[in-house]
TrEMBL record, chain A:
Any one GO molecular function term: structural constituent of ribosome
Subcellular localization(s) per the UniProt record: Mitochondrion
Source species of the chain: Melanomma pulvis-pyrius CBS 109.77
Domain Large ribosomal subunit protein uL30-like ferredoxin-like fold: 4-54
PANTHER family: LARGE RIBOSOMAL SUBUNIT PROTEIN UL30M, MITOCHONDRIAL RIBOSOMAL PROTEIN L30
Main location: mitochondrion
Single biological process term from Gene Ontology: translation
UniProt keyword Endoplasmic reticulum present: no
Listed Pfam families: Ribosomal_L30
GO cellular component terms attached to this protein's record: large ribosomal subunit; mitochondrion
Purpose of the protein: Component of the mitochondrial ribosome (mitoribosome), a dedicated translation machinery responsible for the synthesis of mitochondrial genome-encoded proteins, including at least some of the essential transmembrane subunits of the mitochondrial respiratory chain. The mitoribosomes are attached to the mitochondrial inner membrane and translation products are cotranslationally integrated into the membrane.
Organism domain of life: Eukaryota
Stated name of the protein: Large ribosomal subunit protein uL30m
UniProtKB/TrEMBL annotation, chain B:
Biological processes per GO annotation: mitochondrial translation
Protein name: Large ribosomal subunit protein mL60
Subcellular location: Mitochondrion
InterPro entries given in the database record: Ribosomal_mL60
Mitochondrion as UniProt keyword: yes
Gene Ontology CC: one annotated term: mitochondrial large ribosomal subunit
Keywords (A to Z) from UniProt: Mitochondrion, Ribonucleoprotein, Ribosomal protein
Domain of life: Eukaryota
Main location: mitochondrion
Known partners and oligomeric status: Component of the mitochondrial large ribosomal subunit.
GO function terms (MF aspect): structural constituent of ribosome
Family annotation (Pfam families): L31
Length: 94, 110
């Protein structure tokens, strides 16, 4: 089972209502929104209507919203050796 | 003569928007990129459907009828037919929403 990864690159503002309706139906409300849909002829037809506005890739599995967010987050530049709360617990035990 | 308050046509009163009659080479470059992007989207769709053993009339028809960016003539990439213009061609950048619509074919005979 493969999926379409659809990202809205260009806004639908000022486009015909049919195009804007397709965007709404796919859940693409703002630019750079990414949605995943299974590969079926009906989804392909919807993409054909908005092909100038979106970026489409075929992927094996859909990502959840949290996964998309974490993949877009830049590297923080540090890593956590030990949590402060754990260190505190150790002191309280002594 | 220079500076922010120089006397230019738009500043000396009235509404004056001018669209140049031809595209700049950077506009042409970006336009080709957009055409290629649409081509790749359609290719992705047909490849994904073919993998599942399905076809779609809309995609097949686009592939048969529409030339890809490489197949298009420069004339068709950068100008469109217009019956009101002398010699029947105008720059594609005069088409409303021209960066977000596909306009690749000419009427028969032009």
């Amino acid at each position: 089972m493969s999926y379409f990864r659809i990202t809205l690159m260009r806004s639908g503002i000022g486009m015909p209502l049919k195009v804007q309706g397709v965007l709404k139906a796919l859940g693409l409300r703002k630019r750079m929104t990414t949605v995943y849909y299974p590969v079926t002829p009906d989804v392909a037809g919807q993409i054909m209507r908005i092909k100038e506005l979106v970026d489409v890739k075929e992927v094996d599995r859909p990502l959840t919203k949290q996964q998309i967010r974490s993949s877009r987050r830049p590297d923080p530049g540090y890593y956590i050796e030990r949590r402060g709360a754990e260190a505190l617990n150790k002191y309280e035990d002594v | 003569m220079f500076g922010p308050f120089r006397l230019t046509n738009p500043l000396s009163g009235g509404l004056l928007w001018k669209i140049p009659w031809r595209l700049s080479r950077h506009q042409k470059y970006r336009h080709r990129e957009r055409l290629r992007r649409v081509d790749s989207t359609v290719a992705t769709l047909s490849a994904a459907l073919a993998k599942q053993g399905q076809t779609m009339k809309k995609v097949e028809r686009w592939k048969v009828e529409m030339p890809t960016e490489q197949e298009m003539l420069p004339k068709d990439k950068y100008t469109v037919f217009d019956r009101k213009v002398k010699r029947y061609r105008k720059g594609i950048h005069k088409v409303p929403k021209w960066t977000r619509v596909s306009q690749r074919l000419n009427p028969p005979g032009f």
